[in-house]
Design a protein that fits this description.
The complex is a heterodimer of chains A (about 325) and B (about 475). Chain A is of the alpha/beta class. Chain A has helices at about 15-20, 25-35, 50-60, 95-105, 115-120, 165-180, 195, 210, 295-305, 310-315, and strands at about 1-10, 35-40, 65-70, 75, 85-90, 95, 105-110, 130, 135, 140, 160, 280, 285. Chain A contains 10 helices and 13 strands. Chain A starts with a strand and ends in a 16-residue tail after the last helix. Chain B is of the alpha+beta class and about 475 residues long. Chain B has one domain (about 1-484): Orthogonal Bundle (Cytochrome-c3 Hydrogenase, chain B), CATH 1.10.645. In chain B, strand 15 (about 410-420) and strand 16 (about 425-430) form a beta hairpin. The chains are: A alpha/beta (about 325), B alpha+beta (about 475).
């Protein structure tokens, strides 16, 4: 059996709620099939209070083997370094101390969601709780456990970032770990599993034809591309949301709103309104990934000039006005 | 007298600690501690007002949409924006999708597994209940999870994803539903209806929703074996363990009302006390800081429009990060039971007249709501008109105030915003579990759960009293919302 312990700290619990959405098969079947044994999970396990604290004690004494420690939510070091903004219920000990001690026993340590990975939403504003990720504080390597930290299997913290995570980003990673198929090469430079982080949200976006012609949405509900006006970062965001759908068929862009790049460190402080694209001289500040600026400007002005009426009209409408023309064979 | 510290208290959303004083057989006094502080009200200060739509749903992963609806409503109030009928219908559908999912999750994953605990091994009902409801291993969770996930496909169509959508806007929704999607929504809801009718109730939803008295409920229960459906199983356990005599709080209930269509709500707003429903006046809400780890604990309680949030561990009376909201200086309970009492459902009214607010009645009200709202969702989908607009548009005013009051699964949720120079000057949130799990107030009156726990029986040598587990989880607490 592959023993898994799951702890929650300064987050919303939404990554667990998303994990419960796993389908084909469901979460419990996945765990059963992969031989993953839940030592304890805050939303699922029977054990509470003393029973749960005994599990932690037995892990720390080495009586129970800890194969993977999953931490959801950011780590609160405040106020004044005390960690008192989250004292684990019933233990009178700050959560940051529990996580430091347990991470020393874990063969793998996995950050679940952008809060645990980088600090996330809990670190927004002036970060008055001194929130940090496990091994990153925003983009800076280090975090709670420090840059030197390596788990029992000599790995850095695995960062399954996202706000929330897609259920299968978590299940696929955990199954890889349980099967022994995980290696250093499985993650990108920010510690994110490459099976989702090697893609862009732009890939498979159903607004791609509007993007090609710069036929842009102007208001919530419009059908057009949301990059030019609505703050969409899909061309820069590392995730496979439009290839691996959410809740059956969904994604943020299919829901009619901007990708806010929630898998990236410091997404919580974009330095402008999330849903408005910052521009200089009418040109969006953030360019599509790997696109030279001069070419982008040239192509954008060319494609804008070539926008078919169908796309121009549909882009600023809630409803489809013009369907694509049907081509008839020449007789 | 002895003391007992229970925690971490799991199968609730977030972290929870309960300190109990006990005599040999009962809880004599309880103090409830919400041990996590993140500080969304501080994070929001100075942000562009529209960005509250990104931050506030992330207060909570289980009540995310409720937070979005409260926020969008507060912004619409500040913008003086009207929502078109399609926008209202879409908002109600997405909100109902989350609320009903949460009611189901609570019953199967959070509440029922406590009856599979070893402490009940001597009961004659134990073996089948353990087989069905044991945490992680039971059959029920394995049956329920796929139905839950498929029901949430409504979010995939209408909200992009769940949790944490940005589709809910002050003027309606950013996701217009077209004719094909409308048909698909009907199929998703019908799949969920089938699960509820076959597995949870063992009866058509309409039959459950129309149960109008205790006698009618008991007559229905006795028509089949107690193992024939999960509701009958619960009613059997409730009778065996006398759950109607466990966990009584103040019997003063509050609901903001829910599911706005035109000018009316499906569930009306109000308060219920001693069998009488009266109007709820939002001006009578105050937040008391006397026992919270907050600055200003010696100041008189403030209305949320004047509220402040400055954490400080210097308050020597403090024992929780949670503030203590009060309505006219009274402790009130909120949740599904409150919603149906205020709305005058005859079965729930009969139950409350007989035994007040207690573990059994809270659960019955929650399951009843599933039976009432699913048929409404089918009607709302049919009323969507793909030819009409889904969203109206406006601009954020330079200076304005607004409020958004909504019912989350677990009760009354309010957002109060004030905007200055287009930025958030103050943002105050009172969540359902802030009401239910508040600490004591300046009059030293305990909060609703604290009162409900007094008198709870303790078995010999129990370290984690099982009756305490039932009482706490009967409120379906959401601790991440509580403090936020």
């Amino acid at each position: 059996m592959f023993n898994l312990l799951w702890l929650q700290s300064a987050g919303c619990g939404g990554c667990t709620m998303s994990l419960l959405n796993a389908e084909g098969p469901d979460l419990i079947t996945i765990f059963d099939s992969a031989g993953i044994n839940l030592l304890w999970h805050p939303s699922l396990s029977e054990e509470t209070g003393t029973e749960m604290r005994q599990i932690l004690d037995r892990i720390l004494t080495g009586e129970i083997r800890l194969d993977v420690l999953c931490v959801e939510g950011s780590m609160l070091r405040g106020p004044n370094g005390s960690g008192m903004f989250h004292v684990m219920g019933g233990t009178q000990k700050p959560m940051i101390h529990w996580v430091r001690e347990l991470s020393e026993k874990a063969a793998y340590t996995v950050a679940i969601g952008s809060c645990a990975a980088y600090g996330g939403i809990s670190a927004a504003g002036s970060n008055h709780t001194d929130a940090t990720g496990l091994q990153y504080e925003g983009e800076i390597y280090g975090g709670l456990l420090g840059s030197e930290y390596r788990s029992g299997a000599k790995e850095k913290v695995v960062n399954i970032s996202g706000c929330p995570v897609h259920p299968n980003w978590v299940t696929d990673t955990l199954v890889q770990l349980a099967l022994g198929e995980f290696s250093e090469d499985s993650v990108d430079a920010l510690g994110r599993p490459r099976m989702y982080a090697d893609q862009l949200v732009h890939h498979g976006c159903n607004r791609n034809e509007y993007y090609e012609y710069k036929a842009s949405a102007e208001q919530p509900g419009d059908r057009g591309c949301m990059m030019e006006n609505m703050g969409c970062l899909g061309t820069q965001a590392h995730a496979d949301c439009n290839v691996r759908p959410w809740n059956g068929t969904g994604s943020c862009t299919k829901g009619g709103y901007a990708c806010i790049n929630c898998t990236a460190p410091e997404f919580e402080e974009p330095r402008h309104t999330f849903t408005e694209t910052p521009k200089i001289a009418g040109i969006p500040v953030g360019l599509p990934t790997d696109m030279p600026k001069a070419w982008f400007v040239a192509l954008a002005s060319l494609s804008k000039a070539a926008t078919p009426e169908r796309l121009r009209e549909n882009a600023t409408s809630e409803r489809l006005i013009y369907p694509p023309t049907i081509h008839k064979r020449k007789r | 007298m002895s003391r007992m510290l229970v925690g971490p208290f799991n199968r609730v959303e977030g972290d929870l600690e309960v300190a109990l004083e006990t005599d040999e057989s009962r809880v004599t006094s309880a103090r409830v501690n919400s041990p996590l502080y993140r500080g969304f009200e501080q994070i929001l200060q100075g942000k562009p007002a529209i960005d509250a739509l990104v931050y506030t749903p992330r207060i909570c992963g289980i009540c995310s949409v409720s937070q979005s609806v409260a926020c969008a409503t507060a912004l619409a109030d500040a913008m003086e924006l009207e929502v078109p009928p399609n926008g209202q219908l879409a908002t109600s559908l997405v909100l109902a999708n989350e609320n009903l999912t949460d009611l189901l999750t609570h019953f199967y994953l959070f509440f029922m597994p406590d009856f599979a605990r070893e402490v009940y091994a001597g009961e004659n009902w134990f073996a089948p209940v353990r087989q069905r409801f044991q945490a992680v291993k039971g059959d029920a969770a394995r049956e329920m999870l796929p139905s839950r996930a498929e029901f949430l496909h409504l979010m995939g169509i209408m909200a992009g994803k769940w949790p944490h959508t940005l589709s809910l806007q002050p003027g309606g929704t950013s996701k217009p539903v077209d004719a094909q999607e409308r048909v698909k929504l009907l199929m998703i809801i019908s799949g969920f209806r089938r699960f509820l009718e076959n597995t949870l109730f063992g009866a058509p939803l309409e039959q459950i929703a129309e149960l109008n008295s205790i006698a009618a409920l008991e007559q229905w229960r006795d028509q089949d074996h107690w193992k024939s459906s999960d509701l009958r199983t619960f009613l059997h356990l409730s009778g065996q363990l006398k759950l109607d005599q466990l966990g009584r709080a103040t019997d003063h209930f509050l609901s903001y009302g829910n599911y706005l269509q035109g000018g009316d709500k499906l569930f009306r707003s109000g308060q219920w006390r001693e069998g009488v429903v009266s109007a709820f006046n939002p001006a009578h809400v105050r937040e008391d800081l006397s026992h919270a780890w907050m600055e200003g604990s010696d100041q008189p309680p403030q209305h949320p429009t004047e509220g402040t949030t400055n954490p400080s561990m210097d308050n020597r009376h403090g024992y929780s990060w949670c503030k203590a909201p009060r309505l006219n200086r009274q402790v009130v309970e909120t949740g599904a039971l409150a919603r149906q009492l205020v709305n005058g459902h005859p079965l729930i009214t009969d139950l409350a007249r007989q035994s007040g607010g207690n573990v059994q009645n809270r659960i019955v009200a929650r399951l009843l709501e599933l039976a009432i709202v699913v048929p409404q969702m089918e009607q709302w989908v049919k009323q969507l008109d793909p030819k009409e607009p889904y969203c109206s548009h406006g601009i954020i005013p330079d200076t304005a105030t607004g409020s958004g009051l909504v019912e989350a699964a677990r009760g009354s949720l309010g957002h109060w915003i004030s905007i200055k120079k287009g930025k958030i000057e103050n943002y105050q949130i009172i969540a359902p579990t802030t009401w239910n799990f508040s600490p004591r107030d300046e009059q030293a009156i305990p909060g609703a759960l604290e009162q409900a726990l007094e008198g709870t029986p303790i078995r010999k040598d129990e370290q984690e009293p099982v009756a305490v587990q039932h009482v706490v989880r009967s409120f379906d607490p959401c601790m991440v919302c509580t403090v936020h």
